[in-house]
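Chain A, query sequence.
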Amino acid sequence: MPDDPDAIYDGKSVPSPLVSQTLKQQLDTLDWHPLFTGRCPKCEMAWLQTEHPKDCCGCKYCGWPASQAT
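Chain A, predicted structure.
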């Protein structure tokens, strides 16, 4: 947020990161992306994930790749 003061780390000011998405876009991603929902957005199959994926998300049932999710 623009009015938030910068954080301090190791005695130095660290500026807040720029937000590239609106709040609605961020909430839509949370409602849709399998990393947050645990389900494929295309076929709705549950993803049983026990650790963070190295190349992020791919449905073994329908082949949906996260790289097409934008």
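The beta strands are 7-9, 12-14. The longest helix spans residues 23-32.
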